[in-house]
Amino acid sequence: MNTPNIGFIGIGMMGHGMAKNLLAKGYALTFKANRNRTNLADLLEAGAREATSNADCARQSDIVFVCVTGSPQVEEIVYGKDGLLEAARPGLLVVDTSTAEPESSARIRADLLARGVKLIDAPLARTPKEAEEGRLNTMVGADAEDFATLEPVLKAFCENIFHVGPPGHGHVLKLVNNMMAMSFAACIAEAFAVAAKSGLDLNKLYSVVTAGGVNCGIFQMMTKETLQNGDVTGFKFGISNARKDLRYYTHLAEMLPVASFMGEAAHQSFVQAVNLGFGDKLIASLFEAQEKVNAVAIVPR
To answer: How many Å apart are CA 32 and CA 179, to the nearest integer?
Structure first.
């Protein structure tokens, strides 16, 4: 498979940049839009073909990438009407770049394998900005042969490609990574609420943390623009998506079983933020959720 034909399902915030870079690297691409149809024109102008269904996309492709919100959407793409299972054939590779629930992925993997199709998990890190720039990170769960086939294709839109183990390990690693990131985000929001309630100057808190060992990219994405400009969009990840990822993580921990006090606390912080009406906002709006719960002022206005 020297130059495989690529299928792409889900041209959203991340998927658009990935598809654009695949086309720029010379891959023939057939796509199936999931919900968002606002950013397809440049792909069509660059030579992409729009499929009539998920099955049609698979029939035109050697490798099909799936980039959607989570496991319910992936299951619909595989098992639904005109889905990937209907078009399954020996040799086809399906690459799930979503943040998915390992239990669901294992079932999908087994059902596809019965038709000669391999499912590779390659969830993503970084943001839509890096997707457009072709600089995403990915963590790939695959056997060595399939990874060797896929790696040159992933280089079209990834800066760092990690082969993290056999099938399934990519999704597990992604959930563990996101649990750490979102736990820290919830911790930062709570800490700033306590500081604000006490009357502490939040800019002093920012300066001290920035100069010490607690400083990190997540802290800066959440706080820098928020404190300077009242901008809560610096951390380009949605609160509802984070809640979903943490639910997948706590379910995984429960199934193993491993006690998950930190993961569940973070999960409930995001459940609270969604219930307060901030689900469609980005991560730094956790500050706004804390303001609403605790009657404090954190975000300059």
So the answer is: 30
- The length of the chain, given as a count of residues: 301
Helix (H, G, I), strand (E, B) or coil at 156: coil
| Helical (H) or strand (E) element with 6 | strand 6-9
**In this structure, which amino acid lies at residue 237?**
F
Query: Is the distance from CB of 85 to CB of 115 less than 8 angstroms?
Result: yes
Q: For residue 293, what are the contacts with CB-CB under 8 A and spacing of at least 6? A: 193, 272, 276
| Integer Cα distance of 55 and 57 in angstroms | 5
Residues 134, 231, 245, CA angle at the centre, nearest 5°? 55
Cis omega (within 30 of 0) for bond into 257: yes
Q: Pick left, alpha or beta for residue 10 (phi over 0 → left; psi -120 to 50 → alpha; otherwise beta).
A: left
pTM comes to 0.94
Which residues neighbour 84 within 8 Å (Cβ) at sequence distance 6 or greater? 54, 55, 58, 64, 77, 78, 94, 112, 117
Please answer whether residues 262 and 245 qualify as being in contact, where contact means their C-beta atoms are separated by less than 8 angstroms: no
Distance from first CA to last CA of the chain, Å, rounded? 56
Q: Tokens 């995403």 — which residue?
A: 136
Annotated catalytic sites, by residue? 174
What is the mean pLDDT of each successive set of 10 residues along the chain, which is 301 residues long?
90 95 98 83 96 97 97 97 97 98 97 98 94 98 97 98 98 98 98 98 98 97 97 95 98 97 98 98 98 97 93
State the Cα–Cα distance between residues 249 and 95, nearest whole angstrom.
Answer: 21
